[in-house]
Amino acid sequence: MHAPHDHAPHGPSSCEPSPRAEAANGHAQDEPSRTAAQPAWVSARNASTQSAAPGEFRALAIGSLRVWPPVVLAPMAGVTNYPFRKLCRRFGAGLYVSEMISAKGYLRGNRLTRLLADSRPDETPRSVQMYAADPTEAGEMARSLADSGVDHLDMNFGCPVPKVTRSGGGSAIPLKPRLLANIVRAAVKGAGQVPLTIKVRKGVSDELPTFLDAGRIAEEEGCAAIGLHARTAQQLYSGTADWDAIGALKSRVRSVPVLGNGDIWEATDALRMLRATGCDGVIVGRGCLGRPWLFLELAAVLEGRPTPRPPNLREVCAILDEHARLLIEFFGLEMGMRQMRKWCAWYTKGFRGSSAVREALVRVETLEQLHAALARLDMDEEFPMNALRAIRGKAGAQKQVALPHGWLASRDDDAPPCALEGEGDAGFEDEISGG
Fold first, then answer.
1. Fewer Cβ in 10 A, N or C end of the chain?
2. pLDDT at 14
3. What per-residue confidence (pLDDT) applies to 398?
4. 226 contacts 202 by C-beta, under 8 angstroms
5. In this structure, is residue 2 part of a structural domain?
6. How far apart are CA 171 and CA 435, in angstroms?
7. pLDDT in the model for residue 8
8. Are 324 and 301 found together in one domain?
């Protein structure tokens, strides 16, 4: 299999802005000159989305980092390990964040936890998302990662998984602003000159919003940016992201960048989010699962170029093969192929006959078995339009958020919660979500 020529990156990955970005003096000019035409492979929802004008968007500033295009790969458990980050980087510049790494596991030196936080010399800038619910551990982990050469740290305060929130972690922490402030303050101090950002949800529910308080704390405690997944923890990954909340946060937070997360399925969605909310950058999560070339498309549309043609199945399989080899190189054959099984469903989603070979794909143990299963498909099939906005990864209905007994009765309390069950054990990160 050969890498698809049409989808090779235009140049080496860089966080430096293009001349077009440097010329921008704001998020959008008053009356930018745009063209409305979009290629045939843009969905009907975005067919009338106007192209970016020269200089309409600017580079994302996170501390000393300058990120162009202003796009961040969302931390996702079991997904954003080094192999996937490397693959995404090949398609376009941006900031690519690791999956969530727990402080307890990292500080205890657990092998898998350390591996998930690991990188290679070719990864610049290096970005790690850390999880901690105790200020002391947050400070120690931030200091250790900064000393190891990390270029950017993010903190997770949005995880909605019951085992996390039930113990007072994840999206439960912003319910206690003093505790959140203490954790962030310790982490910022530990990080030193390394910029530290935080990622939150709207709140645990619509009745208990916390994102505006989190924005205030981010500013007061020296964060370099705040990212908002515009859903509540109760929503999990269901429904529609509330982009109005991103706009509300941006209107309140003036001194640090605001990043919007939620429902970026196509590159043109990023244009709509940036314009509708005024946010400084977008965080891309499930939309890039099985579609790492989305970052190439994002770079194009944010610079005013047409959306590139999506790969056909032969080209998709070449990317899939590359991904499998990277996973094997990083994790070893057994774990690498086991991880690859979920990716096979995401890469082939929507292609004719993919459901018939999925049973074989979710059982592959070798590259040979992988190639044999894929060979049953029509390699000349173009990328299916119905797969552009297809949900890959987490979904499901709303669920009541589990909180510790009495958690809401003492919201001024700044005592750290008890340790999560299993936190620090090998594989803990793979069981929870990046939020």
1. N
2. 38
3. 85
4. no
5. no
6. 8
7. 40
8. no
141 and 100 in a single domain? The answer is yes
Decide if 156 contacts 74 (C-beta within 8 A): no
Query: Are the CB atoms for 397 and 413 separated by under 8 Å?
Result: no
> Same structural domain for residues 127 and 254?
yes
| pLDDT averaged per 10 residues, the chain (length 435) | 39 35 33 52 91 95 96 94 96 92 90 86 94 96 96 96 90 97 98 98 97 98 98 95 98 97 97 98 97 97 94 98 97 96 96 94 96 97 94 86 92 84 56 56
Q: From CA 99, how far away is CA 330, in angstroms rounded?
A: 15
- 389 touches 43 (CB < 8 A): yes
Residues 247 and 100 in one domain: yes
Q: Which pLDDT does position 333 carry in this prediction?
A: 97
Give the CA dihedral 283, 168, 163, 133, nearest 10 degrees: 60
Query: What's the 3-state SS for the chain?
Result: CCCCHHHCCCCCCCCCCCHHHHCCCCCCCCCCCCCCCCCCCCCHHHCCCCCCCCCCCCCEEECCEEECCCEEECCCCCCCCHHHHHHHHHHCCCEEEEEEEEHHHHHHCCHHHHHHCCCCCCCCCCEEEEECCCHHHHHHHHHHHHHCCCCEEEEEECCCCHHHHCCCCHHHHHHCHHHHHHHHHHHHHHHCCCCEEEEEECEEECCEECHHHHHHHHHHCCCCEEEEECCCCCCCCCCCCCHHHHHHHHHHCCCCCEEEECCCCCHHHHHHHHHHHCCCEEEECHHHCCCCCHHHHHHHHHCCCCCCCCCCHHHHHHHHHHHHHHHHHHHCHHHHHHHHHHHHHHHHCCCCCHHHHHHHHCCCCCHHHHHHHHCCCCCCCCCCHHHCCCCCCCCCCCCCCCCCCCHHHHCCCCCCCCCCCCCCCCCCHHHCCCC
- Which of 15, 88, 159, 279 is an active site residue? 159
Q: Which of 245, 242, 139 is nearest to 183 (CA)?
A: 139
| Catalytic residue status for 159 | yes
From 273, 308, 343, the end of a domain falls on 308
> What domain range includes position 213?
14-22+54-308
Same domain, 194 and 97: yes
Task: At 397, list the tokens.
Answer: 């209905």
- Structure confidence at residue 82 (pLDDT): 95
Last residue of a domain, one of 275, 308, 341: 308
The pLDDT, as a whole number, for residue 116 is: 85
pLDDT at 54: 93
